[in-house]
Amino acid sequence: MFKFNFYTKIVSIVIVLLIPVLILYIYSNQTTTDVLREELNQSNYNQLTFFQNQVNTNIEMISSWPHLLIHDPDVASFQAIFLKDKTLNLDGINLVKRIQTKLGLQESSSNWRTGLSIYSPSLGRVVSENGAGFYDQKALNQSITNGWQVSKKRVYGKDQFIFSLYTLSPFSSLANSETANTIIKVEFDSSNIQDMLDRFKGDGRKEPFYYKKGVGVIYNRSANEELSGQLITKLEKLGLHEVDNLTVKMGDESYLVHAVRSQTTGWYLIDYMPLSDMMSPIYSSNRLFYITVVGSLLVGIIGAYLLHSQVQVPILQLVRAFRRLKDGDYAVRLSPRGSHEFAFLSRQFNLMVEQIQELFEKVYVEKLHVKEARLKQLQSQINPHFFYNCFSFITSMAKLRNHEAVVAMAHNLSKYYRYTTRQERDLVPLSDEAEFVQYYLKIQQMRMPRLTFTIDIPPQANSLLVPPLVLQPLVENAVLHGIEPQVEEGIIRIKTECVGSSMYLIIDDNGLGLSEEGITSLILALEKPVEEKSGYGLWNVHQRMRLHFGEGAGLDFSLSPLGGLRVILKWPLSMEEGQQDDLIHSSSSQDIVKLEDTDGSDIISG
């Protein structure tokens, strides 16, 4: 389950403070974006409408020229001329020139490039600013329709559109052009509209163009025709209305599209621009804000981490250290870092615990010395019984005139007591302990012929140092409590094993043994203060091993493969001792001692 510590609480507070700011900014930003988009739509609509009105005004002005010319006296005179031959007289020629002058003046009244032509069906001639000539009446009649007509032609590899409007006099002859007295045609090309589109494009962000389905497209001269073509394809699928404000996505970019339909020509004026160009200031502001929020969050996290590492962690370490000290762990130490107040407090704590540990160790050693003195006192009480038993055996063997058994018992007994009475060293070689135990077992073997034993200690392990008299109490415990109470053959095996960087001295017997509950109780008893009823022997050995070799040393118990109890005396090896790799495997030469005869005469040692 997730636990809120000081660090997570500070970070949570920073996040909680930033969340309302973030929500408020997102709401404000969305409102601003909506307002901006609405204003842009309205502004673009107004601009497009104004531009469309300008174009329509020019077209309507051009559309009014034929009506003005029809009422001109010269034009009226021109339509009343009927020639008997194909040539004009002087008055007719002057009339044509006056009409050409008026057509030129009319065309120059507009900044658009236009063309005016007057057709006289009675003369079969057409007059324009550039000249006069004959025309094909049949072809003209086929091209006359109501309203503006649009035709397309290629100019310099690009499409150009010609807008034409025919006006007939009288107006009633529109249905039948053959009855008309005068036909006036006004026309202009799409370059005029392109000029206005170029001026309207202005800042370069707009991309205006005219479009009419089934007719074509009038681009501004710097237009991206490929992109505009893609837009037209999209709009044809969506469908266009009189006025449209759309957002169209093409590729990875979204475009704001506006369209206004001309009531005069039926063409759509379409303008589009990248949405990112208009929204870039808002996007920049958003990025700056989000960077600021992330920066504030990082600063908050760093500040919380500094408070956590510089204040909370040292306090928690100190609290945990005091708890361990309360539980009796006087090896606890803090690792002060830096030179702040908590580092000073940690160093003072370490100094205090070190002094307490030294004091407890002194008291512990003194108590251990008292326990050893008491153990020796108890041993002095037990040893006489062992001594009396040995002399009873000697007396019995002397009466039976078994001199070899008497000599063997006396020899082993003297070696045994010589070792126990000359222990002034803190550590002795393992070989001395093994030899001493061998004398003890030989003595017990002479008393109990059913006892057999083996000692398997490789020569390389003989030089290992252990406290004196740590092996004999373990073997004595196996003999007295495991072998002696039963009548079957007794077996004791002693061997060494190197496991990792530790040495194991293992004593197995086939005696009565203990249950798993008994083994567990025995192991727990070694960790508690010694009790009178439990005895001092095993507890003393366990504590002495820990005193010399540390917490990793001591006694362990388990069921023996022989059926009895296995006692393991373990201690860590030093670096020099651990480099002897051949200690891992027992030596092939075994120190085996076995008594074959009850009189003790055939004692074999290998």
TrEMBL record:
Q: Where are the transmembrane segments?
A: 6-27, 288-307
**Which SMART domains does this UniProt record tie to the protein?**
HAMP (SM00304)
> What membrane topology does this protein have?
Multi-pass membrane protein
Any idea which GO molecular function terms this record carries? kinase activity
Residue ranges of domain HAMP in the record: 309-361
Subcellular location(s): the record lists: Cell membrane
Primary location group: membrane
Matches recorded under CDD domains: HAMP
The superkingdom listed in its UniProt entry is Bacteria
Q: Spell out the protein name for this chain.
A: Sensor histidine kinase
